[in-house]
């Protein structure tokens, strides 16, 4: 009986060890997955809030400030033709600011090749600088994205982006102002 008891003890100890090792290995691999972020895109999380105050200007004031195309897209919610903008193929490192008020919106590290002809990002730079609104125009329901400071129209966000967020922020070049990193 004693021998059997020892055998059982050994077996349960072995089982506990096995469970512990399995847990450790699976925890490590989970961490590995979140760090590599899949699909070769780096995991860049939105930075904490950026402090700013809302900007409100009349349509006339914006029209004087912006060129025709920027006014049409930012203030009239227009869309530039694909593959015509300045930044759809820009691979330089830096930050993309709002072309209307220079609020930092997107980091080049989160820009990816979408093939759409518009600059595409999988996450905004800060968690509070890109606002969202339901857009039911053109016979479809989309999510419009706007600059949270000046309400300038940026583009739309879709759910078919790459990992780690699965989001695709499809942004008009003309709504952005690129600031290259020093
Ligand atoms: Zn803005």
Describe the protein in words.
By secondary structure, this protein is of the alpha+beta class. It has 2 domains: 1-36; 59-180, Metal Binding Protein, Guanine Nucleotide Exchange Factor, Chain A (Beta Complex). 27% of the residues lie in helices and 21% in strands. It contains 3 helices and 8 strands. It has a 5-stranded antiparallel sheet. The protein has a 3-stranded antiparallel sheet with strand order 2-1-8, with no helix packed on it. Strand 5 (142-147) and strand 6 form a beta hairpin. Mean pLDDT is 84; it is low at 1-8 and 19-38. Zinc ion (ZN) binds at residues 98, 100-101, 103, 147, 149-150, 152.
Give me a quick take on this structure.
By secondary structure, the protein is of the alpha+beta class. The protein has helices at residues 2-36, 59-65, 68-75, and strands at residues 94-98, 104-107, 120-121, 130-135, 142-147, 153-158, 168-171, 176-180.
State the shape: globular
Order of helices and strands: HHHEEEEEEEE
Overall CATH class of the largest domain: Mainly Beta
How many DSSP H or I helices? 3
Residue windows where pLDDT falls under 50 for at least 5 positions:
1-8, 19-38
How many separate domains make up the residues? 2
**CATH evolutionary superfamily of the largest domain:** Peptide methionine sulfoxide reductase
Please give the number of β-strands. Answer: 8
**Judging by the overall fold, what is the CATH architecture of the largest domain?**
Beta Complex
Structural class: alpha+beta
Percent helix range: 25-40%
* Strand order in the sheet with the most strands: 3-7-6-5-4
